[in-house]
Structures are given as structure tokens and as C-alpha cells.
């Protein structure tokens, strides 16, 4: 016999084989304790009342002394008989009881066992009971399953049903819907379940037709335009339901239309802002374009002159580990410069190191706005996916007086999506009530949205950089070197980036020199499509927070990063 079954049997013995003889107590001294029952069949209740009036109560109920009420007792098992006895005999009537000293936990488990074994409780009653036991076990699911005498699968299924709204739970208790209906509705946000329930009952939809109905209102994750990492552990991902229930919609779908729409809007907004920043940088810097031939007057088309040779000879420094002591022209909104360079002093011909410093400074100037936009995007997505970090960011912002920098319309325009469609029309007091009644999961989503909005709107980029470093945000998750990025730069700057990111050593000096002699659009294409070279994970120094080139992460680092969402879940 398994340990869980032994525990289960022990609880049954505690109820059914009392070691102390029964006595009688007036009903007025008996108080209702915790009862997993949510629904009592009126027909069965009437039959029990008639039986008690005819024969009296033949089997005692189990009670325990109430700690905070002198001379009072709490029911552990026998709640249905107690309710019927009150109707049959009145509060002055006496019934047989067995009095037992029990802890809160023992009483909880005994009450659950009484309903689970002797008269099968409904699935929602078991779900509510499972939530209580899991809380008593400090979220240890293995221990909760052992105490309940359930398999882990049964516990997981019941906990999934605990998120059903009250009308759906009642409909299942009363058997107006089937378990399959409830399992399908468990995959729908709580604020949408009641309306779906009304449709199911009014139209008399069976489980199969309910499934078809829900399939029509879900969103295909394959078509999503946003990062789906956080979706892997989301309860509204149909894959989670498939793992739990026999009745489920097709895998690969999102059943939370509001969340899907918000993420899609955010992704589109971010994409638009990044493109706008890139276009603005291109217009502001007047990035040269060599596509129209090798004009001798074009400073970027240097051909085979001495400066060109200097750009590829072995004396050129191969990294951008440069001093962050640049002038105001290279600084972003805050006080933290990007890959800044120490100012050049003295006169006379520039050394190769000075030329390299000038090129690095030029790259930093060209990328400042793109860099800031990219890091704001990365931080916004990181906070949107981690409500705990978003909470910290919001508290810091509030305590530093910068929370007010979130634009009024940023969240106001999405309030109906985040809270509820009727929320924008409510008066302020009603909005307080609506926020207070939010499920924890939805409240966490709103916190994440506020954190993401702060990352996008806060004036000082220093704050963005500090939060990104504090939360180990990796820019590689949202940004990478591409054609649009490289086209902003002159040939000397492209040569610097190629050397910094390891492309020149990979190709060899002579092969890269030949590529550098081609038109700029061919140079960009050749850099992006170099055989055997991957740009993924390579961050030019001008795009990092400290001005240091960011090499691709190691395999161990990639595995550690991939495990973060699972650990957070």
C-alpha cells in the first residue's frame, strides 16, 4: 500500500472509528466548521430531514472543541446531517456527536476525506479543497497530493478548475454543464467565462460544439508578432490544457484574446518606434551611400589609398574597450554616454590609434538613438514578462519621483484591455472596486504593463540602463545586427565593426580587404552573408551599456538564460 493510501486510510479511520464514545450536544452549541461542500441537493436534503424526524440521527457527527468560543464545538464531518437536524429538531434539539481534539490541518483533511470518500464531492468542491490543502503545504504539490491521497495528475486537474468563476462552478455543481464544459472554460480568462457559460446553456451546446466555439475565438500563436517565450508557461496556452485535460482545444492557440491583443499592439508599437528611430538617425547623420559608384570625392570610398590600408593592417586595435569620457555630443538623455571615447588632445598628424578613436566616436554618435530605443524595448519586454521585477521598477520610480513620467495616454488607452471593457466608463469609486476585485494573475499583468510603460517613457536613459543592468536584461533577445543597422555607416566604420565583432579574423585580412573595395551595398551584403560566420549574439560596443563589445554567449550561458522562465514559473 502506498504512503498516500496509508495516509488516506488513516484519515478515514479517524472519522469512522472514534476511540471515544459518542455523547449528545444541543445543536445551539455546534458551529459549522470548514466544509468542502459548495452545493447541497435540495431533494436529498428533504429526504434526510424526513428520515431524522422519523428515526432520529443514527450516526454521530464528528466535532472538535472551538478554540475561540467557550463550550462550543466545530463540525469536522457531518455537515449535511447537521443542516438537516436544524430543520428537523430546531436549535434546541440534541444530536449524537463524537468529540475529538484535532489540529486545523487534521480537521481540514478529515473534512475533505469525508466528502471525497463517502459521498463524492463535485470537481469544483475538490478544487477549492485542494487550494486550501496546497496553501497549508506551502505550495508543495507533492506533499498536498500525499495528504489528500490523490495522484499528482488529479491534484493538477483540480487546481486548474479552481480558477473557474463562481457561476461556472455552481453550474457544474448543479450538473447544468458537464466536466468537459468546465475543463474548456478553465482555459478562458475568468472575466470571459460567465458570458461563455450563458451561451453554452442558452444554446444547449454540448462539449464538442463548445470546443468548436472556443476554437473560433482563440488566437494562433504561430501567427503572433511578439516574443512567445512567456507563453510557454502561461495557463492560457492551449498546450497547458492539453497536458491536463482530455477535453481541450487544439495545441498552439492562445485563449486570452485580451493579452494576445495587448502583446501584439505593444510589439507593433515597439517595431514602429525602432524603425522611426533608425530613420531619424539616418536623416540626422546623413549616412553616406556608395550605391551610385566609386566617386573619388566620396570620403567613404577610399579605394586603395593609405587610410584604407591602415584600416585593415595589423596595427589597428581589434576591440572597442575605450574610455567612457566623451563630450556632451555623444551623451544620451541622461548622463551615461554610450561607447564614448577619450577626447583627443595635441596637434599634428593623427596616429592610427587616434583615427580608430575618431571612428569609434562616430559610430557611437550614429547609434545613440537606435541604442537607446533598443534598450528601452529590451527592458520593456523584460518587465512585461516579469511582474516581480516590474513591481520593483515601479516602487523605485515612485520613490524617485519619476513614475509620473509615464505618459497619461500610455496606460489609459489600454485600461479597457488590461482591466475590463467597461472600466474606462466607470466613475473613480467604481474603478477602485474593479481594481480591488481583480484576480491576482490579472493584477500582476497590469503591474507588468506599468513597468513596461515606464521603460518606454522615463526621460532619463540612465534609469533605463540601471534597471536593465539590475535585472540582467540581455539586448540579444530583442536586437541584432542587420542590414538596416549596417547601412547607417561609412566604410571605415563598417571596417571597425567587422574587426570588433570578429568578422575580419574570420575572413582573413586579404579577403576582407577585397570585400572592402567593393560598393557599400555589396560590402554590407558580404558582411552579413560571410560563409561560416554568424552575427547572432554579437553586440557592437556602441550598442552595449558599457561600451564593451558583447561576444556571443557560451552554450552554458544560453542554457542558463533559457531556464530563467521555467524557474520564474
UniProtKB/TrEMBL annotation:
Residue stretches of biased makeup (Acidic residues): 291-312
GO biological process terms, semicolon-separated: chromosome segregation
GO terms assigned for molecular function: DNA binding
Pfam families attached to this UniProt entry: HTH_ParB, ParB_N
UniProt keyword annotation of Disulfide bond present: no
Disordered: annotated span: 283-357, 550-569
UniProt superkingdom: Bacteria
Domain ParB-like N-terminal: 23-116
Alphabetically ordered keywords of this record: Chromosome partition
Any Gene Ontology CC annotation: chromosome
PANTHER family, alphabetized: CHROMOSOME-PARTITIONING PROTEIN PARB-RELATED
Family from the record: Belongs to the ParB family.
Full protein name: PRTRC system ParB family protein
Organism: Sphingobium cupriresistens
